[in-house]
Amino acid sequence: MMSMASKVLIVGDGDAGTIMANKLRFHTDIKDVEITVVGNSKEHYFKPDGVHISFSMIDYKRSVKPTEFLFNYGVNYVRDEVTRIDVADKTVSTKSGRNLDYDYLIIATGDRFTPEDIPGYETDAKHFYDLPHALELQKEIKSFKGGKIVIGQASIPIMCPPAPYEFTFLLEEYLNFHGLKDKTEIHYIYPLNRVFTIPNVSDFVAKRMEERGIITHTLFNVESVDPKNKKIQSLEGESINYDLLVLIPPHRGQKVITDSGLADDSGYIDVDKYKLNYKDYDNVFAIGDATNLPVSKAGATAHFQSMYLSNRIASETSGNIYNELYEGDVACTTVTGYEKGVTLYFNYNKPPKAKFDSKLDYFLKWQSADTFFSSMVRGVA
């Protein structure tokens, strides 16, 4: 008697969902494992390019690919919006009326922006975390002639945590190149009592900000934006005037996660930090930005999580026991200026070390969209 193929359902067609599907396809046979991805994105945007797009340093067209094009042969792609996830009944419901069942469920829904959480934000704040806003900011920067620029993030966590300081360093170099440095004050705000979440990376970044005349404001948790008076106010009582405000909006998990009763207070999924499974379910997992794990919300994080989980599912569907654990691995190349960058490697037990800038690391970052679309997202990296 022929055994039925195991059904793996992946909810989400962003970085995490796409990488996971393609990696799992490499590790399993089509006759043994059926892989279905459900999502509603027409295009896949490589978000880390937003920093460079803002300064017209790359053509945004290289940063976008058709979503359907990115799935390997043997991955079923369903374009639809998920409206409900029922882990007890092992079904996923969609807007079009589909009810999809599964043997394994992988939730990779990412996160969403909630600018409405900050009064006044949507009227005046700019950011570069999606393509339309990156192009809008590009126009603002081209027309900027001097004044006070405030850069930061409204809250923690955000995807791609180094991006605000990357933007700040490139802005300083841009202003210097265009003869605007002496006409501009750059202010960098951060919610914690340092300029970055990881202490030794924070020290590295803070030193370079001081060297470049960037004014830092720590313990600045944004309460509101006053567009009329061009002022940003913190919960701690500090206010800063601005001419241009570049503020990463608050992030939360997707609404469907909350509606399905799977979310914490911020809309993210609480999973086992070593096995990635949800609560007591050994067939329900979450990866990427959808989780509340203490790791960076980044494509590289999803890559390592997908490596672990694809090996685990491939082993289990072959009738084997998989005892390996996910260790929180992250590899992140960040920009520290024009033709300057640093690559950070870390996990739950090993903090990153940032000691010096590298021209090679900068170019790794600059061309990372090509690497992402040609290999990482395809599951071959």
TrEMBL record:
It comes from the Archaea. GO terms for molecular function: oxidoreductase activity. SUPFAM superfamilies: FAD/NAD(P)-binding domain. Keywords: Pyruvate. The keyword Iron-sulfur does not apply. InterPro entries: FAD/NAD-bd_sf (IPR036188), FAD/NAD-binding_dom (IPR023753), SQRD (IPR052541). Residues 7-294 form the FAD/NAD(P)-binding domain. It holds the Pfam family Pyr_redox_2. The keyword Transcription does not apply. This is Pyruvate dehydrogenase E3 / dihydrolipoamide dehydrogenase.
